[in-house]
Amino acid sequence: MDDVATKIIDILRKHMKEPRDDIGLNTALTDLKIESLDLAMIVFDIEDSFGIEIPYNANEEAADFKTVGSVVDRVRELMTGAGAAAAKA
Amino acid sequence: MTASGGPRRVVVTGMGVVTPIGTTVADFWASCRAGRSGVSALGGFPLEDLKILIAAQIKDFDHRARLKHFRRDKIIIHADRYSWFAAAAADEAIKQSGLEAPFKNPYRTACIIGSGAGGLVTFETAYRDLFIHNKRATHPLTLLRIIGSSAAAHVGIEYGVKGPTFATCSACSTAAHAIGLGRDYIRTGLVDLAIVGASESVINYGTMKAWQAMHVLSPEGCFPFAKKRNGTVLGEGAGILVLESEEHARARGAKVLAELCGFGMTSDSKDMVNPDVEGPSEAMRLALAEARLSPSDIDYVNAHGTATTINDRNETNAIKKVFGSHAGKLAISSTKSMHAHPLGAGGAIEAVASLKAMQENWVPPTIGLDEPDPECDLDYVPNVGRDRRVTYAMSNSFAFGGLNAVVVFGPPPA
């Protein structure tokens, strides 16, 4: 796992009531018992850590946030120019 | 309604506080016994150009330790400090009452916890982030932390309250109004149980500047009724009472601490900052009338006693108007001399002080009262508390805007 993934897993662990050690890229966020408010705080922390903006609406199903890997991919994408353009769209 | 058709009697079965002189009732009362002041050098944030450099801040409160057993409310640890205080005080009060959570009849239970200003510290932090630090966003919980009804909601969620749940807001009378409303809901049969009180935590740069601009803060200390008094001192904290109908408490074999036997509320309808004698005295008179007591039945008055020039003189005159010749025989004290002015939470913390005075037949002092103001010429229990039989106690709350609320406590119904 690279730095981006490690950092994101650290953020996820920070927001879990009982942090687990077995979080991998394939772990589903629903398995981490992350609820909507937790997700808002996690998104805020990720944005702050990586200096990006993640288009996200708590009212919608967030397909980008199904697994830890999908979050890592989305963050990587947003860290590149293409992601930044997508964020504006 | 009772079997006789009259309003139901309301009793107190639990109390909790978080104050600058003790973050439990036992520690708070030990400080009152010792005549300890919670006022100290202002700190915890950059003081910049502030001129008033004292306050009564709570320094030994570990919210993680106090609230770690909360289960139903999943985000209390991330809430504003004012909600932490309310949750900790409610926890203490509910434990004392012996009630088990979640409550058995959730729709017959109320949770009325007020706050004069809600999460003002969160507000300032968020605006500093946005306007000074040019942050892109506020913390996602900013809104929930700020809302003035959050403390009531947090406590209601944790203990499973599904009946009337909201906050009161009436500046320094916030807590007394919450207590009075909870009492009325029980009296009239809407609920059987009510968690009531208020919480406040607003000490930050912006709040200090706003109070400083009003020129009502003392640079030296909180000295109610003293000749040297020159303003109030900001405090913070929470006070919570568990109220029940007498039948509800008896049926479950609860230990009844006292009866909440009278409540009176009025508004001066006159001036935002200058109180008059009529409004406060009418609130006291109404509370006595509802309790079916005559002025001479009252032993102890926990005064609003803010240590502002105007309040203490006006309150003295209002007490004289209501109590007549008995005024001189009352033991009156302002515990704000010790815990300073916790704004909206004051009435609940002072209700606890009144209940403890009744429980121990000992009246807390007004400390710092070396030389009384000649216009404040009643017995304010100067500097040292004293043994005195306290069968009935009155607690006064008079707020900016002329909003007055008075509660009267008596012994458990026979």
Q: How is this structure best described in words?
A:
The complex is a heterodimer of chains A (89) and B (414). Chain A starts with a helix and ends with a helix. By secondary structure, chain A is an all-alpha fold. Chain A contains 4 helices and no strands. With 414 residues, chain B is α/β, with parallel strands linked by helices. In chain B, the strands form 3 sheets. A 10-stranded mixed β-sheet of chain B has the order 5-4-6-7-1-8-14-13-9-10, with helices on both faces. In chain B, strands 2-3 form a two-stranded antiparallel ribbon. In chain B, strands 11-12 form a two-stranded antiparallel sheet. In chain B, strand 13 and strand 14 form a beta hairpin. Chain B is globular and about 65 Å long. In chain B, 58% of the residues are buried. Chains A and B meet through helix 2 of A and loops of B.
Please describe the structure with a list of short key phrases separated by commas or semicolons.
heterodimer, A: 89 residues, mainly alpha, 4 helices, disordered C terminus, B: 414 residues, alpha/beta, ten-stranded mixed β-sheet, two-stranded antiparallel sheet, globular
Instruction: Give the helix/strand class of chain B.
Output: alpha/beta
Total count of strands of chain A: 0
- Arithmetic mean of pLDDT of chain A: 82
Q: So how many helices of chain A?
A: 4
State the helical fraction of chain A.
40-55%
Low-confidence stretches of chain A: 85-89
- Look at the structure and give the mean pLDDT of chain B: 97
Shape by Cα distribution of chain A:
globular
**Which H/E pattern describes the elements of chain B?**
EHEEHHEHHHEHEHEHEHEHEHHEEEE
Oligomer: heterodimer
Largest interface (CB < 8 Å): A-B, 9 and 8 residues
Strand order of the largest sheet of chain B: 5-4-6-7-1-8-14-13-9-10
The total beta strand count of chain B reads 14
Beta-strand fraction estimate of chain B: 15-25%
State the end-to-end CA separation of chain B.
18 Å
User: Could you give a short account of the major beta sheet of chain A?
Assistant: none
The end-to-end span of chain A amounts to 30 Å
Q: Estimate the global geometry of chain B from the Cα principal axes.
A: globular
Estimate percent helicity of chain B.
25-40%
